[in-house]
Model the fold of this input.
Amino acid sequence: MNRTGLRILAGAVALVAAACVPAMAGADCFYDDLSAGSTYALSNSNTARLAQNYAYWTAMAVGPVAPDDWDLSVYSSAAAAPGCATGLLASSAAGGSVVDFVMGDFNGSGNAFGTYYAKVNRFSGTELTAWFQWDSGSDALVVNDLPITRAVTNLNLIECWDVYLEAGRTYKFDLAHPGSAALKVMLFRNPADAPYWAGRSSRVLETATTANYVAPASDWYGVVVVNDNAGSDTYRLAIGSCDPPTPLASGIVSGAAGVSAWRSFAQVNPYFTAVAARSVDPAQDWDLELYTAASGGAYPACFSSYMTGSSLGSGQADFVVGDFNVGANPQGTYYARAYPFGAATSPGVIEWDAGNDQIIVDAAPITRVTGGSDVIECWDVFLNGGQNFGINFTHDGAADVKVMIFRNPGAAYWTPRSGANLTSSGNATYLAPASDWYSVIVVNDNGAAGTYKLGISQCAGLYSLPSMQTLFSTPYLYAEIHPTEAAWTVFGALNSPDETAGNWDAQIFRDGTGGVFPACPSTLIAQSTLPTGVVDFVAGDFHVNPPGYYYPFTLQRPGASNNVKLCWDGGAEVITVNDPPVDRSGFFVTLLESWDVFLTAGQAYTFKFNVASGSGLRLALMRNPGASPYWAGRAAAEFDVPGGDHPYIAPATGWYGAVVVNDKINEPGAFTLGVYTGAVAVESGAGFSTRFASAIPNPTRSGVTFGYELREPAAVDFEVRDVAGRLVAQVPAGRHEAGRGSLVWDGLTSGGSRVAAGIYFVKMKVAGHTTGNTTVVML
Done:
């Protein structure tokens, strides 16, 4: 039967237990006009009137109060009393206190749209009324879709759907409910493309749990769930059949929206292969099974000759790995079934990687972008038995990616994810038990976006270097750093303090693998090659450098011993011009430390580097000469000086890197470091000097607090000007007593509007004379 007409979505079901307002039709006949989905109390021999206008199956039901038995009849026309209805279409008299109902087919050339009449009759019992409900049926079930769930009460008698079944196919009807309601699912079929009405006894299938049905014809069938004992419950209903498997293309993700997804893949490459499934929602769980035969299994496991499966919890992909190298699995077509575990309602994704890629040991790393359209990637790698290999795996972004290694111990080989020999979310070391081809898998467990790099090296595994920790190392520490701050970062190395000769250089690389031993990283970015006896360091400007992982390396020069000290400062500390100095009056035992300082083009500054102890302490200032990514060695410093006052005129506006190094690490030192503009104030006998003390915070997104000192009482104000010299705001303080004070500029112009982002010059005036100035950066 062909479906015609426009389907209209049903409204929300309203459960109403009240008599309808009757309408006169004939001398003594009254009709209750009904709405679909609502529940009504009807008296014995009441005739209800309803209008069917949807091209679906419809159902009308009466539910008695036990132990009464009520029946139902449906008519085509109104009539005079006492019958009040004529043209009997169908009746239902199931007997006992169960729901009697009548089904009508309004698809194609079935019943005509219009008004119909339902009449209830108390066959036995004493109750004056029974519940009546009509479902106009404007809903459809989809074969192999995720189950529908419903909650029912004593006022829910029946629900009706259409489902399209194909001739000759076997369908499994699955009804599950935890409560005590007597729920049943039933199936109705119109045997001809003609008007059709039928009572409950005409069902072609009934089950309270699961049952199979072979459709005799391709058509729209009517499905109902009835609540025979008026119980309260929840239920889950699904209809499934074995669809032909959909072929997978290597590296292409396939969506899966139903209760099961049947896929096939043709493995013709002599490599490892992998097939994976994952829920779109990381909080839900999809599982995976693998078979060798395309048919022979009952729904939902429609394949046969089961090989293995992967069934882990939510938040991760399930996958299986197979070995097609010589002597392992035979090439051919294989079959994968992916399905949601339990009551999962989220769709899934499936991906197969035919595996025709290799990783070369000590080659440059592989770089990938991953996201929602990626689940798994598979490579082969040949490892020599008895040797340690560094698995260099780094990643950025929200993607939950992991690297795994699988080994076939011999002959045919399929294994689930749980059979991995190594699983890691970062760098690792792997001892190969035998010389053979191994499978390397990277899986994206949550479908989020990110990037990763993967390399395998015979150098030792990479060590994640902590920030601001001076380490003692023997040769060839293969380290990585991960700068995360928008700041200058610095890595340095110095030969061990008990060595009087020898030299170690500092290098920074972009990639963790690909270099020839001993410099196992590759893509050199910058290095420092100063003579022996000083700290070699490289500095990077991460105000502009791309984020990610970088690889520092200490290069041993001829004649150097095997002992080296190294340190990395990840940045994030700031020196504010004209603020109190950084105080390292305790023992400075680290190799180096760095700070960011914002300087303005053309402004004269004094770097006050007061060294109390430590003959090896020096101050270097690093500058990025452009707006591009920048790394440079110590030799590129603007200045590299011992303790004292050091004037400097900034050639450009921007963030500079101030680095203090200890060239004699065996002599702990102590120092203070500050940066100032203008003349240095002389303290009065009272312990205070007249000066512009601070501007905090700086940079800022809103207000700034200006701190000052007065040697004697005076009138104080502050002027804020833009880079063109225009007066933007004035912060008057009036007359103030000697000592320390502060004023707040709210970041507004004199007219009350917020200033634009940029650089602003602030002058402190005492009795009308400028006594100090600074620069404020408004973000």
Remarks:
- The chain has a mean pLDDT of 87.
